Amino acid sequence: MCRFFFVAWMGVSIGMMVPTAVFGDVQVEIHVNGRGPGGVNDVTDDYVTWNTTLCEARVTGLPAGSGPFSAYIINDPAVDQIVAASLPTAIPAQGANNPARYAGGRVCFAEEPASGWPINTTATIESITLTLPANGDFVKFRIAGQFGRPSYNDKDAKLRVHQNDSNGAVVGTHSLMVRVRKNANRLHDFEVKRFLDAMREYKDVMASRSFDENANIHKRSFDGGDEAHSGGSYQPSFLSWHRAFLLQIERDLQTINNGEFRAVTLPYWNWDEATPRIWADWFLGAPAAHNVFSARPILFHPDNPLDGWIAPSGGQIVRRVTRIFDVNRRPPGNGGVFVPALKPDPLASPSILLSVVYGSNAAGALDLAGPLEGSVHNPAHSLNCAGGQIQSGDSADDPLFYLLHCQIDREWAAWQNFRNRFGKSADDYEMGDGASYVQGTSTSQYGSHLEDELWPWDQTGGANADPLKTRPTPLGGQFATSPIRNIWPPAQAKPKNEDMIDYEGRANPALSLGFCYDDVPFQRGVALGATGPLFRVRAGATQTVGNGFNVTVESIDASGNIQTGFVGRVRLVQEGGTFGIMSPANAGVFINGTASIDDDFHDFVSADAGVHEFSVVAHTTELIPRFKAFALSGGLQGESNAITVNP
Q: Is 245's pLDDT higher than 70?
């Protein structure tokens, strides 16, 4: 509990100039992520993401005979102006990113419903008023990080409690962190230093499971049956296995030295843009001169914690610059092999967001997992710095590996958000070989099915009479209990692929994985780098060839209220089936008289009512197609229900 009005944070008071309490000992106590053992207010787990987090509050110290207490909780305005000079010293950097002031984390609030938390819901309001019983009983409520306002330092978000309203006396504060994974190229300098310090401590000091041991887990995953990589055959668990592996690494970093680096998250290497800061000697290392054709040790600044890094497989970290990349390490879209996978215009081809389902089991539908591994992940390991550890089975020896795979996981997360793929259906995960492994029937490797347990945490290994159940030698132990209450796993676990899908806990917040990305919101229908209105798109479920129907686009705010005046584009995207070609004059689908499938957008400006309608007519005589309508503006999108065209 925070029983004070002034909080010393990094040498700076961030709770000053607030009204003074008039009740003396009256305080409102807040517990984030619920109460600790014995009711202790355990602040070591006061970390939130974009998804909802359970909180509890109670009032203490009221005079005898008092009635219920009205507590008004808001974000402390002081977090909007934190002095950066008080932050940890960073490595001397060229092109520094260390402004004089920055804004700390903020949260949104929600009441706790009596019937349980609804699915696909997070906290969205700016403040909350709680009626707290005078007897000190706790009242539950919810918070979530405010999208676009993550923390930069540990506990730089702060709740402030007033009596009655914002003009009332301050009767409590509570500090926490909105902890998210961020774009490595845009980290503040002190965030870079904190991450590098944690990686060095992880390698040199970690007692329970070291960096080297985890790197060896990845290396050994190639042995025997390998559900972590496709190799010569498609393995749908590539994404889920690496999500579990990254989560283990990240939680290890956060628990080093009794939580010295709790504020650390894994950053991602966003190769859809130039990333010159990542390749500096004060971050992940600068390439040695004249290493275009040969792999050579990379160069670190003497003050960089990674200086002198020895790979678990032996020797220094080696990379080479290829002619395919420019000096800023920006992917060139080499023949469509390594192309920007996520863009503010989410449906502009090529984009993984055009993929409709996760696996290859849906006829006529584009899949995600195979292309994301083969056409995006594989070139990231090879085209950028071929010849070093990053291109070999020792790739996890190089700290770059974790930024690379964090980007892959971010792209999966963005696709999940865009397509609403957080469940356990054949659209959410590959189900062509069944939901679980059945000996004698299954044709895919054990560990690759939805309900299969993942190596090495399942602790199986070695040769097996059933070759599809042959696993690498087991390493380490089961997946460790979450250091934060109310997220997965509540106890040591043998993770399954299905455990890794709903990382935000949309169906059950207690099963969230406790991470999120700075540009992938909880709210569905928001693409990366988005600005502007949200859209609600509606269309008829079916229509007959040659008959017209309307697609209705409404501009809405985050609460679903219609907003007037917007500019955008509408597009129809085919999801299944084939449009017959009768003649150029009447084949395909037409929006307001213009042909449109996959390649044409139709611009619009809304009426003052905030609603725009499009007349759609389909012409085909062959296979029954299915498509959806999308409205787009500034990177934001809304999608309609599926529309089936009957001959």
A: yes
Cβ 627 vs Cβ 641: under 8 Å: no
CA–CA gap between residue 220 and residue 109 (Å, rounded): 45
DSSP class of residue 125 equals: B
- Phi, psi (rounded to 5 degrees) for 243: -65, -45
- Length of the chain in residues, anyone? 647
pLDDT digits (tens, 9 = 90+) for 491-512: 999 999 999 999 999 999 999 9
This prediction's pTM: 0.81
Instruction: Give Dmax over CA atoms of the chain in angstroms.
Output: 86
Q: Give the pLDDT of residue 325.
A: 47
Helix 238-255 × helix 189-204 angle, to 10°: 90
Opening angle at CA 559, ends 557 and 560, nearest 5: 65
Instruction: Work out whether the CA dihedral 358, 364, 370, 371 comes out positive or negative.
Output: negative
CB of 646 within 8 A of CB of 547? Answer: no
HEC string of 70-124?
Answer: EEEEEECHHHHCEEHHHCCCCCCCCCCCCCCEECCCCEEEEECCCCCCCCCCCCC
Say what percent of the chain tops pLDDT 70: 67
**Locus of tokens 């600790």:** 36
What DSSP character marks residue 376? I
| Lowest mean per-residue pLDDT among 171-180, 302-311, 533-542 | 533-542
Q: What angle do CA 427, 429, 430 make, to 5 degrees?
A: 100
* Predicted confidence (pLDDT) per residue in 54-80, tens digit: 999 999 999 999 999 999 999 998 887
Percent composition of the chain: helix, strand, coil (DSSP 3-state, to 5): 20, 25, 60
Task: Name the helix (H) or strand (E) containing 615.
Answer: strand 611-619
DSSP category for residue 298: -
Q: Give the model's pLDDT for residue 62.
A: 95
Query: What does the pLDDT read at residue 229?
Result: 78
The pLDDT, as a whole number, for residue 341 is 61
